[in-house]
Amino acid sequence: LADWIARNVAFPNGMVDRITPATGPRERKMAAEFDLADDPVPVTCEPFRQWVLEDDFPAGRPALEDVGVTFTPDVHAFEAMKIRILNGGHAIIAYPGGIQGIEFVHEAMADPTIRAFLDKVETTEILPIVPPVPGQDLEDYKTLIIDRFANPEVADTERRLCLDGSNRQPKFIIPSIRDNLSRGVLPRGLILASALWCRYCFGVDETGAEIAPNDPNWDDLRATARSARDHPAEWLRQRAIYGDLVDDTAFAAAFSEALRSVWEHGADAAMRAYLDS
Fold first, then answer.
1. DSSP 8-state class, residue 126
2. Which of 161, 173, 217, 276 could form a disulfide with 94 if both were Cys (CB 3.0 to 4.6 A apart)?
3. Predicted pLDDT at 37
4. Where are the alpha helices (DSSP H) in the chain?
5. pTM of the model
């Protein structure tokens, strides 16, 4: 059976991308306006959609490219682009917005400092480390991502982007930091983005409002973030997240500087200092 499967069966990899906010009162109201009042859990989404499939079908396949599916010999390049630029971009704008009490992603994108912060980090620290993608201009993809984030009709929330940082940072931010360090670049914007996550985990935003638990490890993160307020190195001792980056003296020093800047001057000023550098 195993030999037959090896000769006749394939399991093509795939990647999908479409921003789909969590369902809340706004989405239910929209459903009611479209005569869908009987649906208690409507799903809303943005107009953009992307479906990439590995072109490995031994018995043939439908012509799904006719309805917009991208077929490629290797999905991984598309996946890396999405993870680094889109998911990484979400992580970059999540915590400065969350810290400043901003509710919606499009409102964060309307903040000139947050938008400029995203653009600079993407352009100077993320795009240079993303492998080439067939038929895709990375600069155009970045511009598309920024436009998607700014769409007010989607009404995605900052809180959703801030969710589960202990799982998302090691996937979406830390690898990009590592890749920059490997090419001899100290990525101060990405490091600031991680410091902003630490500040968020303190559990109180800059308006004085309490931040409700937003991570399976929230209690530990909050306790560590409170210790890190005066001793930033405490945050980096979470080796399950940062691994051996804590042993990189340049990274550790830059993180300490970034976190102190956020605490002393606020998120907006810390981002503007980076933009002016």
1. I
2. 161
3. 65
4. 2-8, 25-33, 76-81, 88-99, 105-110, 112-121, 138-149, 158-162, 165-172, 174-182, 188-200, 218-228, 233-236, 239-242, 249-265, 267-276
5. 0.93
